[in-house]
């Protein structure tokens, strides 16, 4: 399977300037090419090359390959929506193919720039690239973010042999207080994330009131940092869940996320959390980490998972007097609501397994 990985680059200041100049030139060239594409109403690469190739090479000082790439970028964007004339961000990502990117061992990469080739050290090689049997795909994107250069690469990772029939199911409930709770009752906390979000929200309000250019820049940086943090938390949770399932030879049962937003009743303040990030990302991470580890994931019907008593099967809204508590009105079984939901989710996967066999 294919995974994308961000490798951190560590260029010298001089190399950094060359890379920035290259990104500017490529994006300006692509914007110019898009202008011509728009004016001539053509999304055809060959036709567009005939029209702008010489001009772009001359005006922006690009190599043949970079010129062709810039034209391709313009074509793709214009093709997506022919009603608008695409304009590319000054420092938007630039695609590097093997003709302009060469690996120098595993510690450095040679990149073509407008001032010749530079050999840039790679600071962080990423987790997949180092795993057994991983191979690097040809193309990469040069990305500049908050003052740091990255190379976004695609890595082909061998798919492990699939788990035999799981010896049980680890049910996972995705929540708010805890981002996830599994059917053994283990919580996976989102506490840190919520604290950071609250702090940032306060800061954002202050900066927005200011409205200056530098305040806006700071805002943007904050938002990125926050989403990186949340992403990292999701990675950690997904890794833990998948590791636990693998070690205990269980499959993972998740609610079909389609149901999540209908099911959970939350106060307004929390609703922002729920929608802005998290659930889809966490599920995506669990799913692909599970696939890499050979752990089976099964999605189950989310209806009434939080209202059903795992003891006697009684379904009742009143089984859940508060958001955090479960207490069966029929048999008295009580517990923490997320844990109960996770148990129900795990059980539903068993039922599905039986259906599959029949
Ligand atoms: Zn009961």
UniProtKB/TrEMBL annotation:
Membrane-spanning parts: none
Q: Does the keyword 4Fe-4S apply?
A: no
Q: Which residues form a coiled coil?
A: none
**Domain Probable transposase IS891/IS1136/IS1341: residue ranges:** 153-248
Cas12f1-like TNB domain ranges (all copies): 279-345
Q: Which Pfam families match?
A: Cas12f1-like_TNB (PF07282), OrfB_IS605 (PF01385)
Gene Ontology molecular function: any one: endonuclease activity
Q: Which UniProt keywords apply?
A: DNA recombination, DNA-binding, Endonuclease, Hydrolase, Nuclease, Transposition
- Family statement: In the N-terminal section; belongs to the transposase 2 family.
UniProt protein name: RNA-guided endonuclease TnpB family protein
Species source reads Streptosporangium amethystogenes subsp. fukuiense
């Amino acid at each position: 399977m294919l995974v994308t990985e961000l490798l951190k680059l560590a260029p010298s200041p001089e190399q950094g300037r060359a890379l920035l100049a290259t990104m500017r030139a490529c994006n300006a060239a692509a914007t110019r090419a898009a202008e011509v594409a728009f004016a001539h109403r053509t999304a055809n690469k060959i036709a567009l090359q005939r029209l702008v190739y010489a001009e772009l090479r001359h005006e922006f000082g690009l190599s043949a390959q970079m010129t062709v790439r810039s034209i391709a970028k313009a074509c793709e964007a214009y093709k997506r929506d022919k009603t608008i004339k695409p304009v590319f961000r000054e420092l938007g990502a630039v695609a590097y193919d093997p003709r302009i990117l060469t690996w120098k061992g595993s510690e450095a990469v040679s990149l073509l720039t407008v001032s010749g080739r530079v050999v840039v050290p790679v600071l962080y090689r990423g987790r997949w690239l180092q795993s057994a049997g991983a191979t690097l795909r040809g193309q990469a994107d040069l990305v500049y973010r908050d003052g740091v250069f990255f190379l976004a690469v695609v890595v082909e990772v061998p798919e492990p042999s699939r788990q035999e029939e799981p010896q049980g199911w680890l049910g996972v409930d995705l929540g708010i207080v805890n981002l996830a709770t599994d059917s053994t009752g283990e919580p996976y906390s989102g506490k840190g994330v919520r604290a950071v979000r609250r702090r940032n929200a306060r800061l954002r309000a202050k900066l927005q009131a200011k409205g200056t250019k530098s305040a806006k820049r700071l805002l943007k940086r904050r938002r990125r940092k926050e989403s990186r943090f949340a992403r990292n938390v999701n990675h950690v949770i997904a890794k833990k869940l998948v590791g636990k399932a693998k070690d205990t030879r269980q499959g993972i049962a998740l609610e079909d996320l389609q149901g999540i937003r209908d099911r959970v009743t939350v106060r307004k303040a929390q609703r922002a959390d729920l929608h802005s990030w998290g659930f889809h990302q966490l599920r995506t991470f669990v799913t692909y980490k599970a696939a890499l580890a050979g752990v089976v994931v099964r999605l189950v019907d989310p209806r009434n998972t939080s209202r059903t008593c795992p003891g006697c099967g009684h379904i009742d809204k009143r089984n859940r007097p508060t958001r955090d508590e479960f207490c069966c009105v029929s048999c008295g079984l009580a517990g923490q609501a997320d844990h109960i939901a996770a148990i129900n989710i795990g059980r539903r996967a068993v039922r599905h397994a039986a259906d599959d066999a029949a």
